[in-house]
Write a structure and sequence with these properties.
Blueprint (H helix, E strand, L loop, with lengths): L1 H18 L10 H6 L2 H32 L6 H13 L2 H12 L6 H6 L8 H25 L3 H9 L4 H29 L3 H6 L10 H11 L1 H30 L1
Helix pairs in contact: 3-7, 3-9, 4-7, 5-7, 7-9, 8-9, 9-12, 11-12
């Protein structure tokens, strides 16, 4: 229990240090004043726009992949490892991989540039970096949720000669919706907090590719108050998302 207390103390002291910050010449409304700054508002807009698209892409593309991984087939373990790789891969490495693949002189970037398509250092690059890093969290959780569905229901649908697509929409997905919602919320929160892959592949262009985590890093070097204000927003959003995900997960286990 002592070691458990040390870990809890580490988390608590770090959070208190952030929450207790007050500027030297602070007014009671200093936090809201910082939110009015252009750099804060721009970073907030870029983050919300990019993570919304990332979440949609993860949901649309990750759900079929999770359905596939929930079935047994040769090479499934290898495919699961491949899909889960970004979870343990350092984000900056993921960003470098995207840059070498889609940058102007990259594997596909050169051909895209000839066609007039430029991805690196754009909002699209932000979305791609967020999706690459956050998608595995959704796919892994969704796969586990689909595997918990009563196999007798799936077998009954197969006996009635229902297609797998029909079975997925009518038998597998509906009971797993709370778990899918929790998984998507966690993936969205991970995308919101993504830093390494984003700054490597998309750079730091205020109002274009500067997300909230990047703004925290940049502003923290010159204006600590603005960095703290953005950090508090991220902390609040993360807490709400995690609490909501826990509630949805508790409904699944009840």
């Amino acid at each position: 229990m002592v070691f458990a207390g040390l870990l809890l103390a580490l988390v608590a002291v770090a959070l208190v240090g952030l929450l207790a910050h007050r500027p030297a010449s602070a007014t009671p409304w200093w936090f809201f004043a910082e939110l009015q700054r252009a750099v804060v508002r721009q970073a907030l807009v870029v983050s919300l726009e990019s993570t919304l698209v990332s979440a949609i892409v993860i949901l649309v593309c990750g759900t079929p992949l999770a359905l596939l991984l929930s079935r047994r087939f040769p090479g499934r373990e290898l495919l699961e490892t491949f899909v889960s790789l970004p979870v343990v891969l350092p984000p900056v490495v993921a960003g470098l991989a995207l840059l070498l693949a889609f940058g102007r002189n990259g594997l596909l970037g050169h051909a895209l540039a000839i066609a007039g398509i430029h991805i690196s250092f754009t909002l699209i690059a932000v979305i791609m970096a967020q999706t690459l890093v956050a998608a595995p969290l959704y796919v892994i959780a969704a796969t586990n949720a689909f595997q918990r569905i009563d196999p007798e229901l799936v077998d009954a649908a197969a006996t009635l000669r229902a297609s797998f697509t029909y079975t997925a929409w009518r038998v597998i997905i509906p009971p797993a919706l709370p778990a899918l919602g929790a998984a998507l919320a966690l993936a969205w929160a991970r995308a919101l907090g993504e830093f390494g892959a984003t700054i490597t592949f998309a750079g730091n262009l205020p109002g274009v590719t500067q997300t909230m985590p990047i703004a925290v890093y940049i502003e923290g070097q010159d204006d600590l108050d603005a960095a703290v204000a953005i950090s508090l927003i991220l902390l609040l959003v993360s807490f709400v998302v995690l609490a909501g995900a826990r509630m949805m997960q508790s409904r699944v286990t009840e």
